[in-house]
Amino acid sequence: MKGKKILLGITGGIAAYKIAFLIRLLKKEEAEVKCIMTPASCDFISPLTIATLSENPVYIDFWNQKDGQWTNHVELGMWPDVFLIAPLTANTLAKLATGYCDNLLTATYLSAKCPLLIAPAMDLDMYAHPTTTNNLNLLASYGVQILPAESGFLASGLIGKGRMTEPEDIVVTLNNFFMLKNSMLGKKVLITAGPTHEHIDPVRFIGNHSTGKMGYAIAEEFLNRGAEVLLISGPTNLTLLHPKLQINKIISANEMLSVVQNNWLSYEIGVFCAAVADYRPIVQEVRKIKKNDEELTITLIKNPDILAWAGEKKKENQFLLGFALETNNAIDYAEKKIINKNLDAIVVNSLENEGAGFGYDTNKISIISKKKQITDFPIKQKKELASDIVNYISKSFIKK
Ligand code: CTP
């Protein structure tokens, strides 16, 4: 981060006390740091501490009452390579989401030309409130990178999600940001995610436990690196907003196939994460099935293999990654899938590992290449694995 200009916005939450440590870490990395504090944050940490550690004057008001000088928020917004707001309170978040600028920090946000990173911190109910979720989603749709709050002890005495990301992790994110920013600029990535639902009748379907978390995390990682993403998603509770994201929501395997067929050849990278139902009812009843008989037989027919279709059509300049979820003989089965579906690599997650698979925030994966080289990863958060998977793809794609 040597020489990188970081504008640090501090708002009035208890996590503001950790910012002294964050500034020390940034200075150790030889970054240039300037800080804007909201008046409320000065109750939590002294501007003198922040000025001393950042080795720069601290900006709080539009004008300095002592010397009568005006602080130019437009100039301040032009200065940095990145604008980080940490901790970000629910109050300032709401102001950013609505463009309300009643202090120097929020006015600078509207003037800033650089990428913005935010590290929200608040009590668990405030963090879980739909208003907060909507405000965060709105900022994400403008391209703001969010460092999600973590779970743990909160100043209120409650335990839950709302703690600011730790300063060490913020530094890792900033380092990655500078290293990876724009590394996927101009690349077009097609991703399938989530389950498919196969209708039995108007009120019932066959589905599976996939939540779509892994596919959405991979989509977000590509977007953060500047790629254009088409996310073809089965039914999930997840939302992802970004100016470079096109999201196409489908229900069934046949619908997913048709979106893939219309798009795959104009994309360079395909990541097929979806847990597609292997079979669908041969007949989809128009009316609800009544429980008249003791036994009910539904005849199923095989669904099209979407990944196999993409593999068959794959051109030299395209990179195709599949996923395999196995309960036994994971590596053997996965290697067969690479050949049968003409893949460049496959991500294997085995349900034999605790903490891996559907619904968990963590996963344990191995990636196997076409040449049968196996790369193992330890159990990690799906978001971190998304970064490992995208790193793997970018290295392999460049070699191709
Ligand atoms: N896939 C797909 N279309 C299908 C089935 C699977 O695109 N109809 C993709 C998945 O997105 C995943 C990979 O293929 O990338 C999984 O391979 P698959 O052969 O479906 O694995 P299993 O369902 O576990 O198959 P099997 O029961 O034969 O092991």
Radius of gyration (Å): 24 Å
Distance between the termini: 31 Å
Shape: elongated
Please identify the top-level CATH class of the largest domain: Alpha Beta
Main sheet record: 8 strands, mixed
* CATH evolutionary superfamily of the largest domain: CoaB-like
Describe the protein's topology.
Layout: E1 5-10, H1 19-28, E2 32-37, H2 47-54, E3 58-59, H3 73-78, E4 82-88, H4 90-98, H5 104-111, E5 116-120, H6 124-128, H7 130-141, E6 145-146, E7 150-153, E8 159-163, H8 167-180, E9 188-193, E10 198-201, E11 204-206, H9 213-224, E12 228-233, E13 245-249, H10 253-263, E14 269-272, E15 279-281, E16 300-302, H11 306-313, E17 319-326, H12 330-340, E18 345-350, E19 362-363, E20 365-369, E21 374-376, E22 380-381, H13 382-399
Parallel strand pairs: 1-2, 1-4, 2-3, 4-5, 5-6, 9-12, 9-14, 12-13, 14-17, 17-18
Antiparallel strand pairs: 7-8, 10-11, 15-16, 18-20, 19-22, 20-21
Helix pairs in contact: 1-2, 1-8, 4-7, 9-13
Description of the molecule:
There is one protein chain. The protein is of the alpha/beta class. It has 2 domains: 5-181, 3-Layer(aba) Sandwich (Rossmann fold), CATH 3.40.50.1950; 188-399, 3-Layer(aba) Sandwich (Rossmann fold). Helices cover 33% and strands 24% of the residues. The protein contains 13 helices and 22 strands. The strands form 6 sheets. It has an 8-stranded mixed beta sheet with strand order 13-12-9-14-17-18-20-21, sandwiched between helices. A 6-stranded parallel beta sheet has the order 3-2-1-4-5-6, sandwiched between helices. A hairpin with a 5-residue loop joins strand 7 (150-153) and strand 8. Helix 1 (19-28) runs parallel beside helix 2 (47-54) and helix 9 crosses helix 13 (382-399). It is elongated. The two termini are 31 Å apart. The mean pLDDT is 92. The protein binds cytidine-5'-triphosphate. The site of cytidine-5'-triphosphate has 17 residues, from helix 11, strand 17 and helix 12.
